[in-house]
Amino acid sequence: MNRQEYTQLTAAGIADLVRRLEISPVEITRAALDAVTATEPAINAWAELLADQALSHARVLESEAIAGNFRGPLHGVPVGVKDLFLTAGVPTRRGCRLYADSVPNETSPAVERIVQAGAVMLGKTTTADSGWKASSNSPQSGVTRNPWDPTRTAGGSSCGSAAAVAAGNVPITLGSDGGGSLRIPASFCGIFSMKPTLGLVPTYPLSTSEHLSHAGPMTSSVLDYALALDALKGPHLLDPYALPDDGRSYVDIVCTSARSLRCVLAPSLFGREVDADVAHVITTAFAHVKGMAGITIEEREIAWPDPISIFERLWTARGAPKIGSSPAELALLDPGLARLIRRSASISLADHLQALQDRAAFCREANTTLGEFDILLTPMVPIKPFLAEDDGPKEMDLERAVPWAHWTPFSYPFNITGQPAASVPCGWTPDGLPVGLQVIGARFADDVVIQFCAQWEKHFNWNARRPAVHSGK
């Protein structure tokens, strides 16, 4: 199998071919490694490529397949893992120069589970320094670029995970989302991802913002996402927020007939301005949603107050454990992260407890509203991808507590609430940049969000176009 043939396959397709012994995990892994070589270093999606280890593991999976033994639904499927997830014996540098030599002796639950399901870990994908921001550069791994236009950002902090899928390197990657870090790069790179309900997929190690941070897959199709989510979900002792298994098969949900859904269309939230090109794509997408079978549009205004103050206080507090870092250590960090750490010193215990109370109040209001219909649709990001070397648009105010949150106003509210929210591709701007539609459901209604996204995928084939930099070219 050559890399062009490989990039035509989904994870579901690869797993099916392996199960029918029509292709071996070794062939697939070699093709995947060739695909990475074809787009690196132009994209710089990979912090660590594990070619020898991946091929060795693929040989074991090949022997098992020949013997009729299959580990799970992803047997032989190549995947990437965001470099914030611990991987025993493999460097976990977190996009941070302070961890340049860090090799953990334990593995995060999500990585354990995707490997147990039969996946081949091809390597670690790049991330912004410690996952702190929504752009795609770090002092440790450099600049990760958008496959649609390498001069533009891939978004962050799961930048390498999004770029690797968009560039056709692997069909599935693992990422995390504390304020939009799955959905923002998914939108900018034209792929699919959903931030599941907080706790559906266990996270570890926990950070000081674990009440905001979700783990999940990033994929080129909704079915591939469902395959991965079925393997990842369920409780784990290392994550105190982990939920009991919800008992759903998300693959079955994707494959079953659609049911009627009540949708609210919000071209903006909190009165925020949306770039004209992005707004045009969203308006066109909304028109298509109105024509989808089983969709009822409900007219209502979403009148929540902007929870930016809540998010900024909670996000800034994550820097508190590093208060007292030496000037030499701070100098090694992303400059914005160093500023966050210094600013966190001004947050008192009373301030933090009040932020948690304010968070609870916003959660009650948002969840009450979202209990009155099925789906809220918004733009994912109100701007187009900016220059890859930058941390945001030129007008971004670095004096704000969390500068990047001000150009991502539609993502962080749903980290505060912990409910499921997806980014699904819905079109391209005149200059050929992808635009994501955000699909939001009530807490624990992950099945409803997945169902809508599967319906949309049948209606809008985003894989009909490929990025300028793609392994299949």
Question: Summed up, what is this model?
Answer:
This protein is 35% helix and 15% strand. With 473 residues, the chain is an alpha/beta fold. Strand 4 (137-138) and strand 5 (142-143) form a beta hairpin.
What does this structure look like?
- This protein has 473 residues and is of the alpha/beta class.
- Helices cover 35% and strands 15% of the residues.
- It has 16 helices and 15 strands.
- An eleven-stranded mixed sheet has the order 1-3-2-8-10-9-14-15-13-11-12, sandwiched between helices. Strands 4-5 form a two-stranded antiparallel sheet. Strands 6-7 form a two-stranded antiparallel sheet.
- The two termini are 15 Å apart.
- The relative contact order is 0.14.
Descriptive key words:
Amidase signature (AS) enzymes, 473 residues, two-stranded antiparallel ribbon, alpha/beta, eleven-stranded mixed sheet, 15 strands
Distance from N terminus to C terminus (CA atoms, Å) equals 15 Å
Strand content: 5-15%
Overall average pLDDT: 96
Strand order of the largest sheet: 1-3-2-8-10-9-14-15-13-11-12
How helix-rich are the residues, as a percent range? 25-40%
Rg, rounded, reads 21 Å
The CATH architecture? Alpha-Beta Complex
Characterize the biggest β-sheet.
Answer: 11 strands, mixed
Topology:
Layout: H1 3-6, H2 11-19, H3 25-39, E1 46-49, H4 51-66, E2 78-82, H5 109-116, E3 120-125, E4 137-138, E5 142-143, E6 145-146, E7 149-153, H6 159-166, E8 172-177, H7 183-189, E9 192-195, E10 214-219, H8 222-232, H9 250-255, E11 261-265, H10 276-290, E12 295-297, H11 308-317, H12 327-332, H13 335-344, H14 349-370, E13 375-379, H15 413-417, E14 421-428, E15 434-440, H16 446-459
Parallel strand pairs: 2-3, 2-8, 11-12, 11-13
Antiparallel strand pairs: 1-3, 4-5, 6-7, 8-10, 9-10, 9-14, 13-15, 14-15
